[in-house]
Amino acid sequence: MTEIKTMKREQIYFEDVEAGTELPFLIKKYSLMKMALFASVLGDWCPGHYDYKWAKEKFNQPAPFAYGFHITAHCSQVLTDWISPNGALKKFKSRTLKPVYPNDTLTIRGKVIRKYGEGGENYLDCEVWAEKQDGALAARGLGIITLPRRSQ
Amino acid sequence: MPEKELAQEVRMTPEERELFEKWKSKIGQIFISQSDQEAMDDEMVIYFWGLGRDASWTWIKRWATVNEDYNALWFDEEYAKKSKWGGIIAPPLYLISVNDGLQWPERLADDVYGPGMLPRRDKYPSYSHTFQAESEWEFFEPVRPGDTIDARSKLVDVYWKQGEGYRMCFVVGETTYSNQKGQSVGRNRSSAVYLFK
Prior knowledge:
heterodimer; A: about 150 residues; alpha+beta; Thiol Ester Dehydrase, Chain A; five-stranded antiparallel sheet; B: about 200 residues; four-stranded antiparallel sheet; two-stranded antiparallel ribbon
């Protein structure tokens, strides 16, 4: 295995963020190979996700379609990338709205919609959404995260 | 819940109503997973539940790599040690690999599909297809290399809703995750929709 170049970000602090703050976007390109690899870690080998014939005949889809959870995991990454290392993802909810096929590209974006303190924790509610290359909304989600304060 | 009130308004064939009643009667049941060996005996092997149950660092890295998520917290012990986590952790959504929460919604598919995963059009001519609708996750403790994560899935709701062009039967499962220390690691609520024309 070749060495992986890992991502280390500068910590974002609660004080530096407001409702309306946009998160750095993330780009994910889908391919048949990536979808089959995802099957191998999910443990769901439904051929509709990597076999053109199955997708067409049994699911009435033009091509194999990405697993909903593949998209979910990608959408959550826009949050974990942003809050690392010391922020925490507390809750995450997502819904897939459009099928994603091989050669599709998703741009995943996020925005802070609420900032509040509760039980000594510094919370942010962030909406997350994934757009396909044609601008269509493929998934939508909501994450609740905590961030450290500079003063802590 | 308003969805349940709507259930009465959705038109159903007698076969569909029978299916609905059968599924509803399972609400509250805990899912008993097949062993991998039992699964291999099936005509069509689709699912191996719980691949990520033994959360080795190798498996955590594999999950992260497949998702092209190269956050140093999952890979770099020295970096992770200096963080609030005190060491390597798994990405929160790693729990998908332990159990995606769709055991119940998927198992009920056995009633709609016949051999070779073909929809039983004889019994349910209006049935179109099924897709994952929404998943909701809560994270209480991080998964760490070496953890063993147990998951229990319960069927919590089955209801109908009239959609645009389709009648939709929602099947909702709730899964709880705990580690070898007995700590609650997370919780998931996932639903699948069975679409009928």
